Amino acid sequence: MYRDSDSSPGSLLEVNKNGLLINCGKNTLLIREIQPEGKKRMSVEAFLCGTPLKAGVVLSGQKPGKEQ
To answer: Which residues form the Formyl transferase C-terminal domain (predicted)?
Structure first.
Protein backbone atom coordinates (compact mmCIF):
# COMPACT_ATOMS: atom_id res chain seq x y z
CA MET A 1 0.00 0.00 0.00
CA TYR A 2 1.39 3.43 -0.88
CA ARG A 3 0.41 6.77 0.54
CA ASP A 4 2.31 10.07 0.52
CA SER A 5 3.03 11.38 3.98
CA ASP A 6 5.22 14.01 5.59
CA SER A 7 5.19 12.13 8.90
CA SER A 8 8.13 10.25 10.41
CA PRO A 9 8.64 6.53 9.81
CA GLY A 10 6.76 4.63 12.51
CA SER A 11 3.93 7.18 12.60
CA LEU A 12 0.37 5.93 12.74
CA LEU A 13 -1.38 7.45 9.73
CA GLU A 14 -4.78 5.86 10.31
CA VAL A 15 -6.26 3.99 13.24
CA ASN A 16 -9.61 2.27 12.82
CA LYS A 17 -11.32 -1.10 13.26
CA ASN A 18 -9.94 -2.27 9.91
CA GLY A 19 -6.31 -1.85 10.91
CA LEU A 20 -3.35 0.35 11.74
CA LEU A 21 -1.75 2.14 8.80
CA ILE A 22 1.89 2.87 9.62
CA ASN A 23 4.33 5.07 7.71
CA CYS A 24 7.46 3.08 6.79
CA GLY A 25 9.35 5.80 4.95
CA LYS A 26 8.58 5.38 1.25
CA ASN A 27 5.74 2.89 1.82
CA THR A 28 3.07 2.11 4.39
CA LEU A 29 2.18 -1.02 6.32
CA LEU A 30 -1.39 -2.03 7.13
CA ILE A 31 -1.64 -4.21 10.24
CA ARG A 32 -4.95 -6.05 10.56
CA GLU A 33 -4.06 -8.42 13.39
CA ILE A 34 -1.79 -7.92 16.37
CA GLN A 35 -0.36 -10.12 19.13
CA PRO A 36 0.58 -8.27 22.30
CA GLU A 37 3.42 -9.86 24.29
CA GLY A 38 2.13 -12.84 26.27
CA LYS A 39 -1.34 -12.74 24.71
CA LYS A 40 -3.19 -14.40 21.86
CA ARG A 41 -3.39 -12.90 18.38
CA MET A 42 -6.41 -10.62 17.95
CA SER A 43 -7.96 -8.25 15.45
CA VAL A 44 -6.94 -4.61 15.62
CA GLU A 45 -10.57 -3.81 16.43
CA ALA A 46 -10.36 -5.96 19.60
CA PHE A 47 -6.93 -4.54 20.48
CA LEU A 48 -8.21 -0.96 20.24
CA CYS A 49 -10.96 -1.71 22.78
CA GLY A 50 -8.31 -2.01 25.51
CA THR A 51 -5.49 0.07 24.02
CA PRO A 52 -6.60 3.41 22.61
CA LEU A 53 -4.31 4.72 19.87
CA LYS A 54 -4.62 7.85 17.75
CA ALA A 55 -3.25 8.81 14.36
CA GLY A 56 -0.04 10.82 14.66
CA VAL A 57 1.52 8.68 17.40
CA VAL A 58 5.03 7.45 16.55
CA LEU A 59 5.63 3.80 17.45
CA SER A 60 8.95 3.36 19.24
CA GLY A 61 9.16 -0.30 20.21
CA GLN A 62 9.27 0.67 23.89
CA LYS A 63 6.60 -0.32 26.38
CA PRO A 64 4.59 2.69 27.61
CA GLY A 65 6.15 4.23 30.72
CA LYS A 66 9.61 2.75 30.08
CA GLU A 67 12.46 5.20 29.59
CA GLN A 68 15.81 4.27 28.06
So the answer is: 6-51
CA 6 to CA 48: how far, in whole Å?
25
List pLDDT tens digits, range 25-46.
888 999 999 999 999 999 999 9
Residues in the chain: 68
Q: pTM score, two decimals?
A: 0.77
d(CA 24, CA 11): 8
Cα–Cα distance, 68 to 66 (Å, whole number): 7
44 CB-near residues (< 8 Å, 6+ apart): 17, 18, 19, 20, 31, 32, 33, 34
